[in-house]
Amino acid sequence: MAVTARKSASGLEIRELECFLALSEELHFGRTGERLYVSQGRVSQLLRSLESRIGARLVERTSRRVRLTPLGEDFLSSLRPAYDALRATVEDACVAARGVSGRLRVGFQGTADDRFMAVVGLFEDRYPDCSTEITEVPLSDPFGPLHRGEVDIAVVLLPVAEDSLVLGPVFSRQPQYLAVSKRHPFASRTVLCAEDLADSPLVGVRGPAPAYWREAQAPTRTPDGRPVPAGPMVATLQEGLSLVAANRGAMLLCHPTAEYHHRRDIAYVTLTGIPDSALGLVWNHDHENSRIRAFAEAVEETLV
Fold first, then answer.
1. Is the pTM of this model over 0.70?
2. CA distances in angstroms from 86 to 17, 39, 83, 282, 294, listed in the order given
């Protein structure tokens, strides 16, 4: 039977939407009722009310199965992100009401030096009810932990061009270094220019990192268009440094990393003619909250 009555959208009830969302996942009235702690009859009542409000069927129910109608599928695709955003807004308001608290998982690509750890200390002193966890972000997968929800915020090497990510404060802009073996001809130099990259294989990054990001860390051409020889591909910084020490190729490094990973068998030579390296604080747009904003503010105050 078609739904003919129409209710005003102004009287929309969140419980009707929650019921529809649960039913779209369970596709079973009984399990939906158990999930929502209501009777199966109440699930049917809430669904009928929502369908009456919309003016058309959202769910087809037979003796054998439950499935969404084409309109129900379209409604679900629009409702889910809006509902998630509404929940996030309410959660943010709750956090704001009781202050910044909970847990903030901070990912760091490269080396969390003393300046960055000072930011962590400032944040924890300012918000004692919020604890921080520092985890390493793989060189080969700078954005994956954010996409997968493994960290809340991350410090990564630029560039960042992911549509779903927010680039916050950018800091530690400094000339790049070329790491070479002490046996490499470049080891006796104090400064190199970008065109010199055409004269030595360059260690690259393999893995799920996007192509534009991998190109920035290991360019395939010099600014004048000369090809840069491809060296071995690595997934971790330590792999790269080991191959550099073995004179298998050179590797671009940012200043903090070169400074922290000083080795007697590697020379670190300043490289000119290419953009400075920089670190950026990045988070998922859909997961932004008061903890992330407070941490970004601490970074802005201290490092930028």
1. no
2. 12, 26, 5, 22, 21
